[in-house]
Design goal:
Layout lengths: L2 E6 L11 H4 L4 H15 L2 E6 L3 H10 L6 E5 L8 H10 L3 E5 L21 E4 L4 H17 L3
Parallel strand pairs: 1-2, 1-3, 3-4, 4-5
Helix pairs in contact: 2-5, 3-4
Length: about 150
């Protein structure tokens, strides 16, 4: 079975109470439930992990080495400066899709730079929780088309 890792960085655990006007009212559990429902329909397996600690995200990637076929990641604020996380993602050797709930290009200037984008297949941003389901749908199609095992 095709397995994907869905990673969430700092402050994503505060969804549903954190700046609802930007991030929406759904909690991270709500988002994960939507992704799980789509995963069932697509016939893929997803593992969710969230941490406010950069090293824990890297540890999670390393723990899943060789057992996953792709990664969906919302690095949170780590998007803008975490070369440690970037190296961990590179070392995973699987397709990556970067997601963001809000559109970072419509926000503060400092949010417009991502150290992850250039190693990702693409970035989906600005569609709230639907950014995650769009990423899952695309990642499943990519891995199937490319025969990623």
């Amino acid at each position: 079975m095709t397995r994907f890792l869905v990673l969430n960085g700092p402050n994503i655990n505060a969804l549903g109470r954190r700046d609802i006007g930007i991030y929406g009212a759904m909690t991270l559990d709500d988002v994960n439930r939507e992704v799980s429902q789509l995963a069932d329909k697509l016939g893929v397996e997803v593992t969710f992990f969230q941490s406010n600690v950069e090293g824990h995200l890297v540890d999670c990637i390393q723990e899943h080495f060789g057992t996953i076929q792709g990664i969906i990641i919302n690095p949170g604020a780590l998007t803008h400066y975490s070369y440690t996380l970037k190296d961990g993602l590179i070392d995973a050797g699987v397709p990556i899709i970067e997601v963001h709930l809000s559109n970072p290009y419509a926000r503060e200037e400092w949010r417009r730079h991502s150290v992850v984008t250039d190693i990702a297949r693409g970035q989906i941003a600005g569609f709230g929780w639907r950014s995650y389901t769009a990423a899952l749908d695309i990642l499943a199609a990519i891995t199937e088309e490319e025969g990623v095992q």
